[in-house]
Amino acid sequence: VLIVTLCVVGTVMLYSASSTLSLSETGGVTDTLFLRSHLKRLILGMIIMFLFIFMDYRKLKIVAPYLMFGSIILLLATKLMFIVKGINFPARWLDLGLFTIQTSDIARFSLIVYLAYYIDKKRDKLKDFYEGFMPPIILMTSILATIVIQPDFSTAAVIGFIGFSMLFIGGARLSHIIVTGAVAIVVMVPVMLMRSYRMKRIIYWLGSVFGMTNGTDQEVIGYQAQQSLISLGNGGFWGLGLGNSLEKNLFL
């Protein structure tokens, strides 16, 4: 019931937020362009969800390793396809003709299934750094690296957090997690700063915290953040009402 409620509310919110953009994209023909696309994916997702409800989840153990390695192949294939086609955009979506998939979402699901399988299989050895803890860390690093080169740093960070959380809950030593996490942060900080737009966003955020945001460049960098604050200022906690948003009028 909760999942269905969230889907219904989310669909209504999506239509409310995207109707103006849909009219703009279609030259005023329809305001449901994004709604229809969302509903197709929602129906497919609901079908898959109900199939999983009636499936014995323990059977996922059989395919867990294949899901993991298949995800790495999909991530690399997505990046390679963008390179071959000369597309200068983040390689996050794989076009399969009839539909597109975000390969990092498949990787996240695969990692969760694989770690659950691994923790169950190696629960007695998980506290051993080399024999129990390092193998999933190496595999997780491979997944995160293929996501970072897309580039999709934020998704990689979220998946990394999920992985470490599962290992901790599964019984891994906290000291191992802290040390490995510290090494990961040391490695990821320079990787994060390699992209100029990330650095600019950090500078803008620091400037806004200390009241030093001024100038055209700063306004351009922080445009989305500024519009988000304007939206919150206009609507408050409850918003302006269904369909009455101002920011949906192509400000964001």
UniProtKB/TrEMBL annotation:
Q: Which membrane topology term applies here?
A: Multi-pass membrane protein
Record's keyword terms, sorted = Cell shape, Glycosyltransferase, Membrane, Peptidoglycan synthesis, Transferase, Transmembrane, Transmembrane helix
| UniProt entry tagged with the keyword Protein transport | no
Q: Where are the transmembrane segments?
A: 38-55, 62-84, 96-117, 137-168, 174-193
* Any GO molecular function: peptidoglycan glycosyltransferase activity
GO biological process: one example? regulation of cell shape
Full protein name: peptidoglycan glycosyltransferase
Task: Say which species the protein is native to.
Answer: marine metagenome
Q: What is the lineage of its organism?
A: unclassified sequences, metagenomes, ecological metagenomes
